[in-house]
Records
---
Amino acid sequence: MLRANFFKFFKYKKNSNHEIVQYNSNKNFSVQDQIKTNIIEIDQKILEISKSLIQAQFVKLRSTFSKSNNFLEQIGKNAYKTEVEDSINWHQKQLKELYFRRRELEINLEKLKGIFWLNRIKRLLRIILIGFFIFLTLFIFLSGFMIIIYLMPLIILILLGYFLSTKRY
């Protein structure tokens, strides 16, 4: 009685369709191929924008170190400099957007392949390992520094004894 009321409450409909459904995995592979081609296209765009950004930064560097004594050239140089800085900012913004889009596509591809959590765990372990090595390096450096500070009177005493013993009267 309770069960019947429960199903009536949620308007449960029993599945009367007993047909065999065929799974078509080609759709999954076509989506993977499409994502891979999108990633390749984004990589090419990233390469082009990176080259353009380097060229714009090189132009800014040349204009910064160019010497001009003419007043009109100074005004033109300042206007040119703002245009170059705007271009650099635009290229940097485009690169950030492309990198974010590429990362989203990689995550979607990993989810389709079923390796998303495995890669996430690998990244987490890599970050933990790098943090551990940085902490260990700092610990060794600081402990070595503290040992040198504590042994400084002994080192000074040994050096003083050496200089006194080698001094000729």
---
Amino acid sequence: MARRNRRIRVKVTVDTTALRQLRDNAQEVLRALDHPLRDATRRILDVSLFLVPRGGAPGDPLNLADTAFLDGPLYNPERKSSTWTCGYAHPAAGAIHQGFHWGDALKPPPDFLRRATKGISRQLKKSVGQVLMREIARLTQ
């Protein structure tokens, strides 16, 4: 006996009050996210320092490992986002951006430093979730 595909209608209601409170107080929430974002970006930079080549190429006055940088936070009030950046100020490398953004996801980090971000994104999601829950609790008191 053949089964027919049946359509089931499900009505889902979502309480968006907490989300609206986060968006209405975006500046405070983004400032609260500074610590986990900075920590994750610093961890990525620390791990990547073990992966970058040591010693400059022949004729290259810059040593790639010596050009490491950590920068942030960069706030974008229109997109309600906060970004921390780390990477290498060298033509052979680039930057890694870690941040919290409303809207579309950003492109993944460049392949050169992808291994440095492995596992840290998962930790960052957990710590961002904890901060957001703490901010929701604070805003709903």
